[in-house]
Amino acid sequence: MSFKMSSARSISIIALMSALVCVATLVFQVYIPETHGYFNVGEVAVYTSALIFGPIVGGLAGGIGSALADILSGYGYYAPGTFVIKGLEGFIVGFLSIAFKRFHSRSWWRVLSFSAIIAASAAIYFVGSTFYGGVMELSIGLPPYIEYTTVSVDIPSTVWVIPSILMVIFLVYLELKVEKTSAYCIISTLIGGMEMVLGYFLYEFYIMSFGWAALAEVPFNICQMLVGTIVSAFIVHGVSKAIGYQLEGSRHEV
Q1: Model pTM?
Q2: Which residues fall within 8 angstroms of residue 234, CB to CB, at 6 or more apart?
Q3: What residue numbers bound the domain in which 249 lies?
Q4: Number of structural domains found in the chain
């Protein structure tokens, strides 16, 4: 089942999801001095928008909301690149999640899904323990309404075993509970996320002229992608249950 929305409703949904992407990007940030950029959790909202409403809403909300967050948080020099990179990311996730519905082989989806779960769990442990251990400066706020509060936190590298294990448990539960829904969500977001990682590297390397220093942000963006994958899978599963349909059989489209 699919629902065609009026122009007014489409614009309203795009505006709402853009606002959610913007807020999710603003509310929690980790500054990255090498590239003058920041880690955030905006991918959660970008992926959720794309998985629920499809590529058009996902693309526009991802581009508009993320670029606006860059401007509001003082990173306006990233806004042009962000608009394109996050817009493509949202579009890719939405497009692939629809395309993957056409594959009906349960065994193929099971193998693909469990492989993705293991790879993503290993990646989040490696990236987290390697690049997110030690003393980190975390900023929490919502400019321009709430100024950022910055705190220093000492994070043991071994603590990343916990989210890795929890990720496996949760995603395996989703896979067993809702069959291929979690599989196409995971695969779609990981592919879209890799476009984001590559896009920012190229933008920082060539446009912002950081050269190979742009590599410093790659692990942060990978972790950003993984966090977005985990949380959006949880949200999409919850939404699909709340409104009474499985996303592989239904979709809101603009």
Answers
A1: 0.78
A2: 170, 174
A3: 2-253
A4: 1
